[in-house]
Amino acid sequence: MRNGGFLIVLAVILLMYGLINFWVGLRGWQLLGRFVPFLSVKLYWIAFWLVALSFFAARLGGGFLPAGAGRWLTVLGSYWLAALFYLILVLALVEIVALALRIAGLMPGGLAGHAGASLAVGLAVFIVVGCTVSYGWWNALHPRVVQYQVNIPKQAGALKNLHLVVASDLHLGTIVDNGRLMQMVDMIEELGPDLVLLPGDIIDENPGPFVEQDMVSSFRKLAPEYGVYAVPGNHEYIGRESEVIAAHLGDAGINVLRDQYVKVADSFYIVGRDEISRGRMGAGGRKDLAEVMEGVDRSLPVILLDHQPVELDRCREQGADLMFSGHTHLGQMFPNNLITRRIFEVDWGYLRKGSLQVIVSCGFGTWGPPIRVGNRPEIVDIRISFEPGDGK
């Protein structure tokens, strides 16, 4: 029954995807393709569908395709998804304007009946979308360091200060490869933190590329004084490989906390929440935070990791002082940030809720389309002071 339901959902997704692509392809031919010398409509549609279906071909046929072919199809399909997203937005605007002009009698017959206008609009659409995707590709490859200074008004044993780095949503795999991971590792080493935290979506579903590219060795270059800690994200569960992924991360020297806590240097706690959506992946629900934190001495600073920035009030009630999350990507591609802003109380940056301070990162890597528009990939550099009585 479950397999039947999955096949129905997959069929609906493929049908919708096919219809949307057909509309985009049709408008592409009408506005621009028909003006390209020596390009027949048949050749146009063959090339179009090869590109449009490449992502699904890589995902569904990954077990049958040669490794090199699967990688190139994944890359091609991922960039097409980025282009498709902006083509939909721009072409929808073109449709609205063309309809308005037609109703007003300024363009009878629509764009199809005006070759000059059609070609000009087609070129404009091609340039706008091409430049947007190109910028997004460049932007995604140039992460920045975002810095915060935070005070936790508690004593932390002998510690007066703590320097930590947070890197979320790496999505390591075919697109975000070992070269990108080494870029991140080098940036973190240059910052020289006492502690590194990874709040989820470290490996993008399939651990194969992580192993094949020996990313374990890359992670092992990180050697902060107090270690490297992580929690799983939804992508660690999507591929039903969460246990395998946790084992590989452990081999890389990363302590994966799943509804667990550790006391560090007898001075502060790190509490790691399991992924809230794990139940939808067939892994059962996560524990209540009160149960997770049973035994935590709340007179010491409590740093909490949760992949998604949710249940903030519950975290505050249970005595967490500082919470780190990711997941949102800040929409990754504008204007999706307008959606994440409505879904989450804080989808990026800093928020204070009484005694709880929350920092949400838009992440280091990308998922799906390998571009970022309207935000920059980041590593978060935080310096914490422990000064009792200063709650500001």
What does the model show?
It is a single chain. The protein is an alpha/beta fold. The protein has 2 domains: about 1-140, no CATH class; about 145-385, Purple Acid Phosphatase, chain A, domain 2 (4-Layer Sandwich), CATH 3.60.21. About 45% of the residues lie in helices and about 15% in strands. The protein contains 13 helices and 12 strands. A 6-stranded mixed β-sheet has the order 1-12-2-3-4-5. The chain has a 6-stranded mixed β-sheet with strand order 6-7-8-9-11-10. Helix 12 links the parallel strand 8 and strand 9 (about 320-325). Helix 3 packs antiparallel against helix 4 (about 65-105).
Strand content: 15-25%
Spatial ordering of strands, largest sheet: 1-12-2-3-4-5
Looking at CATH, which topology of the largest domain would you report? Answer: Purple Acid Phosphatase, chain A, domain 2
Specify the number of helices: 13
Radius of gyration, CA atoms, in whole angstroms: 24 Å
Uncertain segments are: none
Task: Specify the CATH class of the largest domain.
Answer: Alpha Beta
Topology, element by element:
Blueprint: H1 2-31, H2 41-52, H3 54-60, H4 67-103, H5 115-140, E1 144-152, E2 161-166, H6 178-191, E3 195-199, H7 208-212, H8 215-219, E4 228-231, H9 234-238, H10 242-251, E5 254-256, E6 260-264, E7 268-272, H11 289-292, E8 302-305, H12 312-317, E9 322-325, H13 337-343, E10 349-353, E11 356-360, E12 378-386
Parallel strand pairs: 1-12, 2-3, 3-4, 4-5, 7-8, 8-9, 9-11
Antiparallel strand pairs: 2-12, 6-7, 10-11
Helix pairs in contact: 1-4, 3-4, 4-5
